[in-house]
From TrEMBL:
InterPro entries hit by this protein: tRNA_endonuc-like_dom_sf, VRR_NUC
Domain VRR-NUC positions: 1-81
GO terms for MF: hydrolase activity, acting on ester bonds; nuclease activity; nucleic acid binding
Protein's UniProt keywords contain Electron transport: no
Keywords, comma-separated and alphabetical: Hydrolase, Nuclease
Gene3D superfamilies xref list: 3.40.1350.10
Protein name (database record): VRR-NUC domain-containing protein
Cofactor: Mg(2+)
Nuclease found in the keyword field: yes
């Protein structure tokens, strides 16, 4: 599965649970996660989506650690089977 296919699937599943999976682009701030996930009840997280077996680049790892240090939930996802568990964890 390619990363873009995982993004489409993730967006579809999040929407089916009443949420939004917004493409997160921050000009001038490299390495931000791919998606900002907003769920009913004010629950949110960031998702970095990767093709199966792929890992985040060093800058992405640094940015993920920075967001987690600020108290945000950030998930690195490389398979469809992970999405349901993340939704349940929110």
């Amino acid at each position: 599965m390619r990363e873009r296919d995982l993004e489409r699937y993730t967006t579809m599943v999040i929407k089916s649970h009443g949420g939004l999976a917004l493409k997160f682009i921050s000009p001038g701030c490299a390495g931000v996660p791919d998606r900002l996930v907003l769920m009913p009840g004010g629950k949110m997280c960031f998702m970095e989506l990767k093709a199966p077996g792929r890992k985040p680049r060093p800058l992405q790892v640094w940015r993920i650690e920075q967001l987690r240090a600020l108290g945000f939930k950030v998930y690195v996802v490389d398979g469809k089977e992970e999405i349901g568990g993340i939704i349940n964890a929110l």
